[in-house]
Amino acid sequence: MSPDPGALGSVRSAAELNERIRSLWLRAGGYLSAHERAEYELLVVEWAEAIRGEVVEAA
């Protein structure tokens, strides 16, 4: 039996992650340092997983 898709996804909601991404860009003034860029990339990956999980739940 395949694992539950929700069990593999993010604990944070897509909306929360989106807000964190927006906040990061605002704090950085639109120019990300190497550290901020790494954080941004992790947030985007987590956001995409959360979106997929929400779509699966809706289906």
Structure description:
The protein has 59 residues and is an all-alpha fold. Helices cover 75% and strands 0% of the residues. It has three helices and no strands. The protein has helices at residues 5-8, 14-28, 34-58. α2 packs antiparallel against α3 (34-58). The longest helix is centred in the last third of the chain and has 25 residues, at 34-58. The chain is elongated and about 40 Å long. The chain starts with a helix and ends with a helix. Mean pLDDT is 85; it is low at 1-7.
List the helices and strands and how they pair.
Blueprint: H1 5-8, H2 14-28, H3 34-58
Helix pairs in contact: 2-3
Short description:
This protein is mainly α and 59 residues long. It is built from 3 helices and no strands.
Oligomer: single chain
Strand content: under 5%
Name the shape in a single word.
elongated
Mean pLDDT over all positions: 85
| Rg (C-alpha, Å) | 13 Å
Helix content: over 70%
Number of separate helices = 3
* Estimated structural class: mainly alpha
Order of helices and strands: HHH
Instruction: Note the main sheet.
Output: none
Topology, number of strands: 0
What is the rounded distance between the termini? 19 Å
